[in-house]
Amino acid sequence: FFLSSFRLMQISEAEGKSEALPPTIHKIIKGYNKYLRPFFGDGPVSVGMSLDIASIDTISEINMDYTATIFLRQRWTDERLCFDGNKSLSLDGRLVEMLWVPDTFIVDSKKSFLHDITVENRLIRIYPNGTVLYAIRITTTVACSMDLTKYPMDKQTCTLQLESWGYNINDVMFYWTRGNDSVRGLDTLRLAQYTVEDYFTSVSEAVYETGRYPKLVFHFELKRNIFYFILETYVPSILLVVLSWVSFWISQSSVPARICIGVTTVLTMTTLMMGARTSLPNANCFIKAIDVYLGICFSFIFGALLEYAVAHFCTLHRPISKDLKKAEEERNGVLAAVANSCNVTDSIKKIDSNKKSKASISGKKERSKHSGWSSPMSVMKRLFCIFDCFHVKNPYHIDNYARFSFPLSFIIINVFYWVYYLYF
Fold it and tell me: Does residue 268 lie within any of the structural domains?
């Protein structure tokens, strides 16, 4: 009894709503079943789509997504909604609940919402031949896989994919109404950090375990504006490197001044490197171009500090003239001893060869003994040669070499860096 009463109340309520409609709309809606798609049993229904990009609010490298506000328009033909006349009917958006609409959804959407101020931003328009225009205003956050290897000289290609949730290709077919011109608004769009270089549309199919579904894809390519990063990161890092070279023109006896410049530039560069990573993912599996450049600058700054440490060490241990002569004499004496030991070894070898027939056992022992002495002497001789190559006769010339080598190498590395990341 209660179930029958409830059904009668629903039927009376629906009849009341339909009677409140104008005669033309009441005639169209009468006997209409919104749970059945158009051309049910006679092939798929074709749904044309077009987009207007109102704005792209944020593009996040940390979350790898973008947030956009779009106007989505869908067109299809429903033979059950044909009526006599030559004018279209614009209906209230709330009447959408009484009609069949495609179950379109955004594939990579993280969160979306339909605008409802002051009313739900939906439009429904019916034409005499049964064509239905359905438009909605959506703000959606869509995932975009980004390759930040060349950041901030990178280009990102993002997509907006539209699919049917429940109707497969046997029930619904999607198509762009005007090809690439189906998407508008990007030509006049102004982004804070990017420039829209190119965009195009494509039609494909999504294959899942439950079947094949229609799919429309909108591709757009974003190029990052590097001018902001040049002023914010690259120019300060270059100036810090140049500032570290000032210590090469300061006397080596001015220890506080040179240490202060070296330590200050190292700490400032460390702070700059930390600030450059605040807007980037904390954990990623690729090295970015800005990380490479900041690492190069940090290496040059740290190298300038080490250069003074080496120069100051050589200055403190620089021998006076007498000590230098004494050291040379001692070195020559050691080398002479090495030569004499080699001659003695040769003579002993000759004696051992003459007495080989009488005392072969004792000769073998002598040769092994002297050969054991000769090998350490040869090693010492080679070490003296190596030390002579790295010996700095005048430690004050180290700064002169650094004044030329540091700027030249930094310029060469910069040329390779910018050519590689801009053209390859």
Answer: yes
- How confident is the model at residue 411, as a pLDDT? 97
- Looking at the chain, the number of H-run helices and the number of E-run strands are 9, 12
User: What pLDDT digit, counting tens, does each position of 39-89 carry?
Assistant: 888 889 999 999 999 999 899 988 899 999 999 999 999 999 988 888 888
Among candidate residues 229, 164, 169, 159, the one with its CA nearest the CA of residue 194: 229
The CA distance from 408 to 156, in Å, is: 35
Among 178, 205, 224, give the residue marking a domain's end: 224
Examine the domain organization and report whether 208 and 293 are in the same domain: no
Strand partners, 200: 219
> Do 105 and 92 form a contact (C-beta atoms < 8 A)?
no
Residue 411, Cα to own-chain centre: how many angstroms? Answer: 26
**Quick one: tokens of 206?**
């999504």
Q: How far, in Å, CA of 47 to CA of 175, rounded?
A: 6
- The pLDDT tens digits for 149-174 are 999 999 999 999 999 999 999 999 99
